[in-house]
Amino acid sequence: MSDTTDDSFIRLGWEEWLGLPDLGLPTLRAKVDTGAKTSALHAFDIETFGSSRAPKVRFAVHPLPGQDHLSIPCSATLIDRREVTSSNGETEMRYVIRTMLDVGEDQQWPIDITLTDRATMNSRMLLGRQALREDCVVVPAEKLLRPERSFDVYTAKKIRQTAPNRALRIAVLSREPNNYSTRRLVEEGDRRGHTVEVIDTTRCYMAINSLAPEVHYDGKRLPRYDAVIPRIGASITPYGTAVVRQFETLGTYCVNGSEGITASRDKLHAHQVLARHRIGMPTTAFAASPKDTNNLIGLVGTAPLIVKLLESTQGKGVVMAETKKAAESVIDAFRGLRANFLVQQFVKEAAGEDIRCFVIAGKVVASMRRKAAGDDFRSNLHRGGTAESVRITKEERTAAVRAARAFGLNLAGVDLLRSNDGPKILEVNSSPGLEGIEGASKKNLAGMLYDQIEQQVRPTPLKQSRVSGAKG
């Protein structure tokens, strides 16, 4: 490693421009130290995850010295855990990963590097002698011999273009681990190299405070997740949304937020949201007093009418009244049970069919037509209905997207009817099932959802002005 001017050698100064592209760190100022055997990368929030057969480690890096407002999340396969003695004589156990080192001019090779907190060091990375190839020459009296790089790569547009796919730790909030949708989310996540854990929502409990809010599960604090996919059952909506709200407080990306889940689950609230956004829906009425029954029916129109419990799901608690007298009887029966319900126009021309639009990130990615079984007016697949892929109109697509957006849902199953005066939104489902629509559309909808999650949990970029002066 003596000094030489031979062009076949890679010359490095004692401080150098380097990159770790596989970690999403294209630019680093590193100290090159042949006195150190191992290499080290500044990392914090270090956490292992994944199976014992293929353990992974994730961590965060501040690539700009003295500018901790930029944090780059990273993950890598864990290859070792070893004892390392630093220059001041202190010994610690460190995780070891293997990643590509980029020294510029198309020169890259894999290196082993340990993870440690270097917050007090001037350089974010130390390059030790084990990482140097035989054709590397270190010139101790000089620095920054490699091509200059700019920290501008960490601005908005560039960082999103260069961020690598990294292994994520994802929680699916579900009480049904063997449910088709839950299994598909786990399988697709595993296929992409992520770690997906199914968490029973009702077994979560929360430490609620302003300094260190936490979510606990079976006696232990849950780890930090990159994303949470809520699949909250109707029977546990209040508690389930409280758990989602706690993850939101922690800053975890939740595919659907607690407010959207709550609003969409309550049919009265949901129809008020749709009305506020001027989205087409069947004429709907609600009243609490039994004295208002006749007027309530009159607000909706003539029989037949639909009477729905406010928290009905999968067609349960939904009744069609063929005549006004039948409607009065159903309403009286629901009131006798002290149940909350609404009365809704029956769209006869829909002929027992509705359309489920599957919306991800503001785009209808699949749609199917569901047809009721026999004489049933309810087309739910859980009640024996059938489904087939269907081409929807531009107007229907727009209505579905607007409905999902009105609730702030990144994932939604929007049910609509085809009426003589345009699409009518029936329901916006915040936990839509995958089985029926994946089967009908022949599309990998679980994969499309992961595309959206991976896009959302990429590093948060900085504005140009905040990094433009950060050259050293």
Automatic annotation (TrEMBL):
Names of the cofactor(s): Mg(2+); Mn(2+)
NCBIfam families reported for this sequence: PRK10446.1 (NF007764), rimK_fam (TIGR00768)
GO molecular function annotation: ATP binding; metal ion binding; ribosomal S6-glutamic acid ligase activity
GO BP terms in the entry: SOS response; translation
Residues annotated as domain ATP-grasp: 271-454
An example Gene Ontology CC term for this record: cytoplasm
Family the UniProt entry places it in: In the C-terminal section; belongs to the RimK family.
PANTHER family, alphabetized: RIBOSOMAL PROTEIN BS6--L-GLUTAMATE LIGASE, RIBOSOMAL PROTEIN S6 MODIFICATION PROTEIN
SUPFAM superfamilies: Acid proteases (SSF50630), Glutathione synthetase ATP-binding domain-like (SSF56059)
The protein's name in its UniProt record: Probable alpha-L-glutamate ligase
This protein's UniProt keywords: ATP-binding, Ligase, Magnesium, Manganese, Metal-binding, Nucleotide-binding, Protein biosynthesis, Ribonucleoprotein, Ribosomal protein
Pfam families linked: RimK, Rimk_N, Zn_protease
